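Why do we care about 3D structure at all? Because function follows from shape, and shape follows, mostly, from sequence. That is the central idea of this module. The next example makes it concrete: a single protein chain, its amino acid sequence, and then its structure expressed as tokens.
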Amino acid sequence: MTENKLIGQILEIKKLTPKMTEEIFTLYTKYFFIKKEAFDKDLKEKSWIILILDTKTNEIRGFSTMMLLKTLIQGKDIHAIFSGDTIVEEDSSNESVLMRMFARFTLELSKKYDNLYWFLLSMGYRTYRFLPMFFYEFWPRFEKKTPLFEQRVIDSLAVKKFGDFYNPDKGIIYPQMGCHLKPEFAQIPTKRLKNPHVMFFLEKNLGYIKGDELACITALSKENFKPEILRRLGLDI
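And the structure:
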């Protein structure tokens, strides 16, 4: 039996059909506790969504929502892609599909905006590990102190988006909508604790299990993507 193939698609949020929205919500609640009204409110504020689709069944096997934020740091216009809700089905080999679409989209966007960052919230170690896997420089990280400018970028974006829900001393955004991982997906496998990036995430975000999120950034430039990753994704370098 041949394995079902997956494809990626980027849509404007306003082009989602009610059926697609319901399917996305069902997939999300497989992994997270969240109320429907909170999910709908969060979805509507986003601009785009990456969909991972099964070509045989046309089912949605993963998604990630995105919006563009802007702030001013030391006289520089800073733009950032903020990733919202993100899910990839565990049984679909599909993180590469998601990241291929994300990399292609953001590298194209970086031609339009100088100083483009990815503003990523990590509620779980699986999300945080995207940073060391795909990028040379990202913040915060275990072996280097976050530079002052990058810390200001994190703080400014977090305050702009989340206001008082952001704790700048800890770099943590506290849950606004009661959203948190289900217990069976929140546990970190023992073997993962040998990874210094996973250990750092755990030390920085002890409250992840109740929905706390670690505010992170990385520069979205071709130079910051690891070239072997771009090759693996089938993108020009």
